[in-house]
Amino acid sequence: MLVIRNEQMKALFFGLAGPFRAQARAEMRQRFAAQCAELGDRGLEQRILLALEKAWHYGIEDDEDILLYLDVMFRAGDRFDEAPEHAWAREILHDRSFAIETRVDMIHQRFAAMPAAREV
User: Fold this and answer.
1) pTM score, whole prediction
2) For the chain: N or C, fewer Cβ within 10 A?
3) Domain ranges of the chain
């Protein structure tokens, strides 16, 4: 029986993320041009890697869902899921009564509807 450890799965997940990272850079530069310019290439790459790390933590595997999560990071901050004012988002992310795709979409829709979403 083949056993794959969590560390090995994580390495595989990140190893296959090269094409996704290029897509994410392009889409975020289009959606959030000013913020990406301010971050610079290295800062943008760090934010994408953080989004991948968070995706791994929450079990988000689909590229489109990771892009939505990254979009929320631009709107609400890199660690929005840890902020007390966004405890509702953390609760949704941990709510296993919905599929992860639904949870990510719920959070994205709520942040996108906020008129004064903090785009950082």
Assistant:
1) 0.83
2) N
3) 9-113
